[in-house]
TrEMBL record:
Species of provenance: Pyrus ussuriensis x Pyrus communis
GO biological-process terms attached to the record: auxin-activated signaling pathway; leaf vascular tissue pattern formation; phloem or xylem histogenesis
InterPro entries reported for this sequence: VAB (IPR040269), VAN3-bd-like_auxin_canal (IPR008546)
Occurrences of domain VAN3-binding protein-like auxin canalisation (ranges): 9-126
Protein name: VAN3-binding protein-like auxin canalisation domain-containing protein
Amino acid sequence: MSSRGSWWGSKSLTSLLRQHRLKKKEDIRIHTASVHAALSVTRLAAAIASVAAAKSGIESVEVGEDGNPIIISDIVASAAYLVAAVCAEAAESLGAHNTHVSSAINSGLAIQTTGDMITLTADAATCNSQSIECFLRQNLHKK
């Protein structure tokens, strides 16, 4: 057996370079899809926080053990802001630029209608499914 056959598994150098180039492209696709998914979820979380803050005091109010009122919408708004912050950090750790993250948060906070919220929800769901699909496609090709 020749040394080339045992070293490269009987593949030509051109074939190996093409395979490497395609893998690199797929890695970039997965990374880009992940960043877009993180930004879309950040946008959605900011929108939920915005809506919850706008509804503050309107909805259910409970009385705590100490007798002070607990406004549920304030708690939901705080939790949504926390989720938006975590999503923003995740997007930045994946490589999103600060301008993209701040733009996602600002556009989430600027929603006006229920149609906007539906659009943001659909966008987040689509981006996440595409990110997962790219990841699975790459990992299934390994086997």
